[in-house]
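Researcher: Good morning. I'm working through a list of sequences from a screen, and I'd like to move beyond sequence-only analysis. For each chain I'm collecting a predicted structure so we can compare shapes side by side. This is the next one on the list. No need for commentary yet; just the structure.
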Amino acid sequence: MHGILLVNKPKDISSREVCLKVRDAIKVLEDKKRRARKLKVGTTGTLDPHATGLLILCIGEATKLISVLQRLDKEYIATMRLHRDVSEDELKKVVSEFTGEITQLPPRKSAVARKPRKRKIYRIEILERRNRDVIMKIGCEAGTYIRKLVADMGEKIGGAHLQELHRTKVGYFSVEDAFPLEKVMELAKRNRIKEIILPVEEGIRTLKKVCVKRTAVKSVLNGSPVYKQGILSADPNTEENETIAVLSPEKKLLALGIYKRSFVRIDRVLKR
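Model: Good morning. Structure tokens for this chain:
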């Protein structure tokens, strides 16, 4: 059951509720096998209850990858409702002003300190306009608040608010590959949820990798550092103190490590 589950979140349910539903469904299956392990289920980035789209759930030992996956860029389809009639030129101008590096003050109800912080908006593409509703595709850096982005844009053009939000991508994961929550629960009831859980190795595509020799596998699983003589291969251009994936000769993820010039310090061991 350790792995990554892509869920297409419906409206009117919190990300936490989705996690709990999946966790409880898995726990029932484990109880039936009389070896319940109380697997953790966590998300790599929440969506507001009104928002829909891609929600990445990490199950069991895959929860140790959450901090890695949280850093991935995001893509959204957002509907901005204008508070007054705005010309095409005004709209294009404000979109241009909010493309690139921006400064955001997180909303009052947020999990981070309410201090101004820089975020990158890679692109804002206007897909469609229906009177005062503007449908946009937004590509942005992790940690960008889209509701705040739309409100800040609105301040420049007489007011606007976020009407709808749908997350389409998180890094290399797409909502097209996600399963509706209803389908996930149906598969869980039929004891087939394993069929849609991706292996933990799917969560390390962006990390540099070190493959250790077979003789070093046991020491890695015990949390001991790996020195050069225990390394089979390593990705080039890895920087000092960079988080890396430590793999077995069979390319199975053993742990996350911190790269040092003469060794790899083991940070989080995956016990599967």
